[in-house]
């Protein structure tokens, strides 16, 4: 398996993060709870069964907050890399996925309209890339414009590219 971003032509990556509790519990418990829901969301969105794609999960990492208000709690971060996404990327499909990710965030208590930019959150789901496709839309830029600047994203992404990790609560 290649560890190069350039070789991820049919791959899609989603970053997960949390540093506030949700109804599921601590940030770590939140990410553990959302894992199967995110896999199912992606299968429903792609209209494919889980057996037809490959999900590779990074380990859960505890990271310091970057930017935003001072005094935030530590984050729990991870990345999901999905290989075998069918079809060619397009804006309509990417925006539909973004809407589903935002709805999942809301299920875990995130209110984007009331939060401080880069402030604490109960769940953050960011679409990082979809193969080497580029999108510049007012609601979504792909690849994620700050992907390469964030070690809390790059480290788990590279880990997910190597092998999938099972999480324990």
Strand content: 15-25%
Report Rg.
15 Å
Mean pLDDT: 90
Distance between the termini: 28 Å
Following the backbone from N to C, one meets helices and strands in this order, namely EHEEEHEEEH
Helix/strand/pairing category: alpha+beta
| Number of E strands | 7
Our count of helices gives 3
Shape: globular
The largest pleated sheet is described as: 5 strands, antiparallel
How helix-rich are the residues, as a percent range?
25-40%
Q: Please mark out the parts with pLDDT under 50 across 5 or more consecutive residues, or reply none.
A: 1-8
Write the layout of secondary structure elements.
Blueprint: E1 11-18, H1 27-46, E2 54-57, E3 61-63, E4 75-83, H2 91-107, E5 124-130, E6 135-137, E7 140-142, H3 151-162
Antiparallel strand pairs: 1-4, 1-5, 2-4, 3-4, 6-7
Helix pairs in contact: 1-2
Overview of the molecule:
The protein is of the alpha+beta class and 169 residues long. The chain contains three helices and seven strands. It has helices spanning 27-46, 91-107, 151-162; strands spanning 11-18, 54-57, 61-63, 75-83, 124-130, 135-137, 140-142. Strands 1, 2, 3, 4 and 5 form a five-stranded antiparallel sheet that branches. The chain starts with 10 loop residues before the first strand and ends in a 7-residue tail after the last helix. The model is unreliable at 1-8 (pLDDT under 50).
């Amino acid at each position: 398996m290649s560890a190069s971003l350039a070789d991820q032509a049919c791959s899609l990556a989603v970053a997960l993060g949390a540093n506030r509790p949700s109804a599921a519990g601590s940030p770590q418990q939140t990410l553990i709870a959302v894992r199967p829901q995110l896999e199912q969301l992606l299968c429903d969105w792609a209209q494919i069964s889980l057996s037809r794609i490959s999900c590779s999960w990074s380990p859960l990492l505890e990271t310091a907050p970057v930017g935003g208000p001072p005094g935030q709690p530590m984050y729990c971060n991870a990345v999901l890399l999905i290989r075998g996404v069918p079809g060619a990327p397009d804006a309509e499909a990417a925006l539909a996925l973004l809407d589903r990710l935002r709805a999942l965030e809301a299920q875990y208590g995130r209110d984007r309209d009331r939060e401080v930019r880069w402030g604490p959150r109960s769940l953050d789901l960011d679409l990082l890339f979809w193969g080497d496709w580029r999108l510049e839309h007012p609601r979504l830029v792909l690849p994620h414009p700050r992907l390469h600047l964030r070690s809390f994203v790059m480290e788990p992404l590279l880990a997910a590219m190597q092998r999938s990790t099972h999480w324990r609560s």
